[in-house]
Write a structure and sequence with these properties.
The radius of gyration is 17 Å and the shape is globular. The protein has a nine-stranded mixed beta sheet, with helices on both faces. Helix content is about 30%, strand content about 20%. Helix 6 links the parallel strand 6 and strand 7. With about 280 residues, the chain is an alpha/beta fold. It is built from ten helices and nine strands.
């Protein structure tokens, strides 16, 4: 029973609440909609003791596309996040995720990064020439947020990340309560980072924890804390619900170089004036 609770609470394991975006917030609304590319979903087979996974490729995309390494919540496969992975790919990013259900160390994320770099350089591979694997971001929810931090801070290969986006980073109290072996130090993050949580995520990833993570950051990159009204710990599952618009804009800014997406976070920063977010904090 305890394991079941861990899978349900600290992972994704449920559907996110449908969210209707308001066109008055133009950037959030635009990036909440499907992008211009159709998407191909390719299964990644398991190799030796490594679980398989899924890659999402933007079709009709000319040239190499930047890479998103997706990292799951506790007990969750990549399929839990299928809709948001497809959504990001529709904007011109390759998204790769594993079926590994315990990703906190960051090791599996680095293995996926190395795999993508190899595939993109290998003739006759379906990924050949399609991934700009040196332009990448780590995205993760809950234990996957821990993995994103660790992949970037604990591994040489991860230090070149163009951006991080983390959701529902668990508190030490939650980690101890569920008996998980997880540790992280966000203060050593140097890449631009988007920190997402919701007002209803009161035990696992409370607002005060995310504010403390934000305050601990000393790196040179843009730092954004965003707290969504009514969002809970499973909000990033499925189509990412309340988070979809600004998560996509964040990655479009840092991976695709979209100047409009940048305006969500810099200058007058649309996210700061968006009253449906209860707290936003931006620093660079």
């Amino acid at each position: 029973m305890a394991l079941l609770i861990v899978l349900m609470v600290l992972g994704g394991c449920s559907t996110s609440k449908p969210h209707v975006y308001d066109p008055i917030h133009e950037i959030e609304y635009r990036y909440s909609t499907t992008g211009p590319y159709p998407v191909t979903r390719i299964a990644i087979p398991s190799v030796f003791n490594q679980p398989g996974g899924t890659a999402y490729l933007p079709d009709e995309h000319h040239g190499q596309a930047p890479l998103v390494i997706w990292q799951n919540g506790t007990g969750e496969p990549i399929n839990t996040y299928d809709a948001i992975a497809r959504h990001l790919a529709s904007w011109g990013m390759v998204v790769i995720g594993s079926n590994d259900r315990q990703m906190g160390s960051g090791q599996r994320a680095i293995e996926l990064l190395k795999d993508a770099q190899l595939w993109s350089a290998t003739p006759d591979n379906p990924f050949f020439g399609r991934i700009s694997a040196n332009k990448f971001a780590f995205v993760g929810s809950s234990q996957g947020a821990v993995s994103s931090i660790n992949a970037h801070t604990q591994f040489t290969e991860g230090r070149g990340a163009a951006a991080l986006a983390i959701h529902g980073t668990p508190s030490q109290e939650a980690i101890d309560f569920f008996g998980l072996s997880l540790s992280y130090d966000a203060s050593t993050v140097t890449a631009p980072i988007l920190i997402l949580t919701g007002t209803e995520d009161e035990f696992i990833s409370p607002v005060r924890l995310n504010q403390a993570i934000f305050n601990s950051l000393a790196g040179p990159g843009l730092r954004v804390l965003a707290v969504a009204d009514g969002a809970d710990h499973i909000e990033l599952a499925d189509d990412a619900g309340r988070f979809r618009g600004y998560l996509t804009a964040w990655l479009a800014y840092h991976l695709l170089g979209h100047p409009e997406a940048a305006q969500a976070f810099i200058g007058r920063a649309e996210i700061v004036s968006n009253s449906t977010w209860s707290l936003t904090d931006v620093s660079r």
